[in-house]
Amino acid sequence: MFDVSQATLDVIESVKNKQTIKFDYQYKQGTNDKPKTYTVTPSGFFGDFIGFEGLDEGTEDRQFKRFRFDNVTEWLGVTKPVKVLVELEFNDYPTDKEVELELHKLVNNLEPVMWRVEDDWVCRHGRKTKATTGSREVV
């Protein structure tokens, strides 16, 4: 079970800062057999804080939906932007066109890709720090 108090605070923060939240949700009426992960831009609460409402970012037209807290199976919280950096190797300084061609080749041929995740996070002392997970080869 997830912490409804933290989820409520996350929804308030997301509304205030126009951020998205992420969570797993399973309808009780059998609409989906397994929990589905949703990314939602919340606009507020409904009922007596029974749940929250907002735009489902996973739908093409960003449908307005309501989500009850008692149907949430896992709370992932407020999302934050993350940069994924793809590494390419060249023998010499490349032109824009050479970079573009190399990227297309990687995507089309499903070759192994060197990448890393870079994001900003706040350490326990409240200072913003640059964090990098390092390079990984994906096959």
Report on the structure:
By secondary structure, the protein is an alpha+beta fold. It has two domains: 4-78, SH3 type barrels, CATH 2.30.30; 83-138, no CATH class. It has two helices and nine strands. The strands form two sheets. Strands 4-3-2-1-5 form a five-stranded antiparallel beta sheet, covered by helices on one side. A hairpin with a 5-residue loop joins strand 7 and strand 8 (128-132). Mean pLDDT is 82; it is low at 122-139.
Mean pLDDT: 82
Following the backbone from N to C, one meets helices and strands in this order, namely HEEEEEEHEEE
| Radius of gyration based on Cα positions | 20 Å
CATH topology of the largest domain: SH3 type barrels
- Secondary-structure-derived class: alpha+beta
Shape: elongated
**Total count of domains:** 2
The end-to-end span amounts to 35 Å
Biggest sheet layout:
5 strands, antiparallel
- Strand tally: 9
CATH structural architecture of the largest domain: Roll
Low-confidence stretches: 122-139
Total of DSSP H or I helical runs spanning 4+ residues? 2
